[in-house]
Design brief:
The structure is a single chain. By secondary structure, the protein is of the alpha/beta class. The chain is built from 19 helices and 11 strands.
């Protein structure tokens, strides 16, 4: 995306302001943090401008950070004191200004003019290869079969940035099998932020030093829960290797957290106070929680949560994230936080997935595609029948606690796949959408009345506003 002279000057001024404010925070953390909010508002919420619709958000942030007992003051100070300066500044510039403000403004303009979804984040798999063979993971079967070339990864980021996307997430396979290319990519696109989902076992001192030099890479390490459960799935000694990787990242003051798939078997343990404290003690700043999805012909539907268990997760993750829960970690629940993002974010509405074979997929959990990066540009793929089906049908429910066209709205993905001629992208055992959704019929039926009560109790009595109009305000 070519920046105008005005935009370049504004970005340069913001970057300089970040340097000044960071010095203030180091000198007087509590006062400096409020100064930082004021600077962010000055550049991201101009007065007497059509862009000034975020004032309420900045006021709420100021109020929270002015509350003496708020954990978010502690959290912000912890970030400044225990994360490398280059990474903190890079995150504020790339994720805060470039992605959340400037890129989002570009996205909204393009969604109107192009009439399709434009992603805020792009998730892609550099490789299908992995150094582990975890039970139930497709990467163990795919092996080294698929790889995106460096030029293809560069194409993804370049085309995404042209559309206003500055946030890139990598998974796999194990992305760090390609860590030399990842470092090269991060340096080439130093105005973008890169977040890597990893098993952590390939992280070493040399790589940590490279990450500091880049200033725009963060991590989420996969962990199952206990040492016993992790090693049972991932192999003997893997749990300790993950803990060792956390400690190495902490030593170098890198920015990282964890990725947790919660199931009917582990949901209580991975949200317990002791487990959260363990993560905090090892320097984690973020915890992604993902609801188990019964994807694949051999998936076990019994691992899906029942309504009572999911209700527990709904309340518990919010408790962990609350200002009164004094452990310095930020938690997100990919499924239950649909309330805050107007439902399903897939299909390019906020994100999409590109697998290691180059297939554009609406979601990392929806293994169907009608486009490939070797045949279509990103914008062409976003206008393909499958992605337009997402665009035209979102949100899939006015209750955003039932966001997914596969899990809570069983059969909707079947309709879209069949209507658009999309195909399964599973190379080992292709699964029909009918087979996939058959596993979620009872789940969706049982969750609906509970989700509707939670939605009503949260004060959502009226149908939701269509996301494009709301996001573009």
């Amino acid at each position: 995306m070519q920046l105008s002279i005005t935009e370049k000057a504004k970005r340069a001024a913001f970057n300089k302001a970040v340097d000044v404010v960071y010095a203030r925070v180091k000198k007087d953390p509590e006062k400096g943090i409020l100064d930082a909010v004021n600077v962010m508002e000055e550049y991201m919420n101009p007065k007497s401008s059509e862009e000034s619709s975020n004032k309420g958000a900045f006021d709420r942030i100021r109020k929270e950070l002015s509350t003496p007992d708020s954990k978010w003051v502690e959290y912000a100070i912890d970030m400044v004191e225990n994360v490398d300066e280059n990474l903190v500044k890079g995150f504020i510039r790339n994720f805060g200004y470039n992605s959340a403000y400037m890129g989002n403004k570009k996205r909204n303009e393009l969604m109107r003019s192009e009439g399709c979804n434009i992603p805020w984040a792009i998730l892609f798999d550099p490789t299908s290869a992995c150094n582990l063979k975890c039970i139930g993971c497709w990467a163990a079967e795919y092996g080294h079969r698929n790889n995106l070339s460096y030029e293809e990864m560069e194409k993804i980021v370049r085309e995404g940035r042209d559309l206003g996307c500055y946030f890139y997430i990598m998974t796999g396979g194990e992305p760090l099998v390609r860590k030399d290319d990842i470092v090269k990519l991060a340096k080439e696109f130093d105005d973008c932020e890169f977040h890597i989902f990893t098993n952590g076992t390939l992280i070493d001192d040399a790589f940590c030093k490279q990450v500091i030099d880049c200033g725009n890479i963060s991590f989420a390490m996969s962990i199952e829960g206990t040492e016993e459960s992790t090693d049972a799935r991932r192999g003997d000694g893997v749990y300790q290797k993950v803990i060792d990787a956390m400690d190495l990242l902490y030593k170098y003051k890198l920015l990282y957290g964890v990725s947790i798939c919660y199931t009917s078997a582990n949901y209580k343990y991975v949200t317990a106070d002791d487990f959260i404290q363990m993560l905090v003690d090892h320097g984690c700043k973020l915890a992604w929680y993902f609801h188990y999805m019964p994807v694949g012909n051999d998936a076990d539907p019994s691992l899906m949560l029942d309504p009572e268990q999911r209700t527990y997760m709904y309340h518990r993750v919010r408790e962990l994230r609350s200002s009164g829960y004094h452990k310095n970690i930020f938690t997100l629940d990919f499924q239950n936080d649909g309330e805050y993002i107007n439902g399903c974010i897939a299909g390019g509405r906020n994100y999409l997935h590109i697998n290691s074979a180059g297939d554009y997929e609406p979601c990392v959990f929806i293994h169907y595609s009608d486009s490939n990066i070797r045949e279509k540009s990103l914008l062409e793929a976003l206008k393909s029948p499958l992605f337009m089906a997402y665009h035209d049908n979102q949100p899939f429910s006015d209750n955003h606690l039932r966001p997914c066209p596969m899990l809570e709205n069983s059969g909707r993905i079947t309709q879209m796949v069949n209507a658009t001629g999309a195909h399964s992208t599973d190379l080992v055992s292709p699964e029909s959408p009918e087979h996939l959704c058959a596993k979620t019929v009872d789940y969706a039926k049982n969750w609906k009345p509970v989700a509707d009560k939670l939605w009503h109790d949260s004060g959502h009595d009226t149908p939701s506003v269509k996301y494009l109009d709301k996001d573009a305000e």
